[in-house]
Amino acid sequence: MAEHTQEKVPTVVADDVDIVYRVNGTGAGRGTATAALNRILRRKQAEKAAGVRTVHAVKKVSFVAYKGEAIGLIGTNGSGKSTLLKAVAGLLPVESGHIYTDGQPSLLGVNAALMNDLTGERNVFLGGLAMGMSREQIKERYQDIVDFSGINEKGDFITLPMRTYSSGMAARLRFSIAAAKDHDVLLIDEALATGDRSFQKRSEARIRELRQHAGTVFLVSHNNKSIRDTCERVLWLERGELRMDGPTDEVMKEYEAFTGDKKPAPKKPAAKKPAPAAEAPAAGNQGGAKVPLPS
What we know:
Layout: E1 10-23, H1 33-41, H2 43-50, E2 53-66, E3 70-74, H3 81-88, E4 96-101, E5 105-107, H4 120-130, H5 135-149, H6 167-179, E6 185-189, H7 197-212, E7 216-220, H8 224-230, E8 233-238, E9 241-247, H9 248-259
Parallel strand pairs: 3-7, 3-8, 5-6, 6-7
Antiparallel strand pairs: 1-2, 1-4, 8-9
Helix pairs in contact: 4-5, 4-6, 5-6, 6-7
């Protein structure tokens, strides 16, 4: 009899993905579509002539993500984590290879929609609309969003312009707006590094809820504990290459050995040497008192 197992449903497939940044020097222009096509066909020669510098940010990366997974993206600075996340969200083109997604990926932040000169309250509505929520849905979830962010705990900050917020307050509000909606694929870049432990716990609990609703969560973080507490699987990128893909504990162990982040176990205090035993008193003189000599 064949064994019945629950079928995994893929939500993101990266197939041999290369991502290249181009930093244009003088001589590069937009021009017409025909001119653009000609530049593509003569790319190497044109880049050299125009002084274009290329940065190969992601190199031949392949993986498959499934519904209900929370996947951590780790790597040292400049390893390509955020670049890969933006490509999955459709914000960056790939040089070669393909990225396929089932549903609409949402990159946490809705940064492009939020405006510093508007109040936090107005930005909650603006960010919610940018994610496709109706005004009625935003009104229903408004107070939950504000409470989740915690920005009103020390004053009525939600009525102040966002330019008055600290970077941590702004990041917490962005996460709270994005987390108010269930997502097919939610991409989170360093959001859990902000706020106190209480906010981090709320965020981690919300990520678990999103997974239960058959969503897929990607989390980029330099906080190893957040990765361990939140993710069951980890992709380790280094210099643009996928160095390891596997269960969180296995990958984190190798990564920490690579970076030297693993703290050594505390040394046990050296055992104290026993004090030298006192000489036993002579027989018949158990109390150790002096015996007077006969005169």
